[in-house]
Amino acid sequence: MQCPYCFSENHPDAVVCRTCHRDFSLVIALKKKVDELEKLSSNTLNEEYENKIQLLEEKIKLLELNNLNLNPVLEFIQKCASFLLTPLLLLLGIHALITIVLDTNILYLRLFAILLPMLSGYLLFRKGAHHFFLWLLMAILSSFISVMGMSYITSLFDDTPIAPQNLAEWKDFIYFSLSIWFSFLTGMMIGQGAKIRNQGVNPKLHLNLIEKMIVKLIGGGNHNLANFEKIAMKILAILTTLLSIYSGLKGILKF
């Protein structure tokens, strides 16, 4: 299958380009419909089908034009603003509200710091295909900036240092940052799984050699490997959620 955007060759059943990572499933569906109508119209010479073909071809051209005109750099910046910067600013606002304005239990802040990044990661990967590890690194950077920003806001009102001053403060800083990052990671995996399920394709994780050997030792065969792939993403999502809760609430609940 040739990508209609970058014209690179892909697997015949692919719906996402392995080179430019654009989703061309809609283009494929429209082109198949055009082919079907062209065959039908050649047999029946029905003007109605000819009009439908022309309408579909116009939609395909418009869809391709919109995607080709989209600057990848601008698209990346827009996604960073929507799924990293926006939740970061919301977290900072919630931090100021809870710790400065209301002066209430910080537990509420930690809960928001778990839910917001998870929702952002889900919406990002639910909408399209992305470089997983690139966004993983971006999430790490965003989580540290979030916690540092909260520390800066606190320093403005309490006249305290922005950076951690001792080992205990550094541990709390790192745990809080990891909590935000694990939450975003969880959302990424849940969103990716939801997108794959809606496309009717089984999620395919790139299992390493050790994981494949474990599956073969358990029972062997492709059937067991497929079953492992189906549950692996769910297990990882649950694990990262637990890690996020643990690292986010560890310093507060003292466990």
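[next item in queue]
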Amino acid sequence: MNTDELNVSIAVAASPAQAFRIFTEEIDLWWRRGPVYRTGKQNSLRLEPMVGGRFLDVAGQSGRVREIGRVQVWAPGERLLLEWRGSNFTKDEITYIEVTFAQESTGTRVAVRHFGWDALPADHPVRHDQQGAAFVRFQSRWWADLLTALQTYTST
């Protein structure tokens, strides 16, 4: 049983196809900046639009490229599944981000499910000394903040 799975969703004023496009193509514009969200203030995020495509963090000054993960499912307007590795993960430490896009009467429900945390050691630095429900709440707030930025970006 995966106890360290989190689920967060938000409604955005866009069609599922538009929400998917903004989430993927404009990820660098809506994904918040700063040390809580990115490894460098000037870094940019890029997502290669295909199964097997890379999720990249590109350093602004040096141009150094760090692969954050890989696209596992690319279904425009419906579903995106990404491998995700934090900057302090080893090569074998992977979590997964599943994003779904569901039509609603006033737009789209964008839902994020981030799972696979149970595979990381209890004392892993990404946990910030938090376990179980406390860790899930911590990560859920992080994703809720990002999805709020996506919601704001789609309404402009």
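[queue empty]
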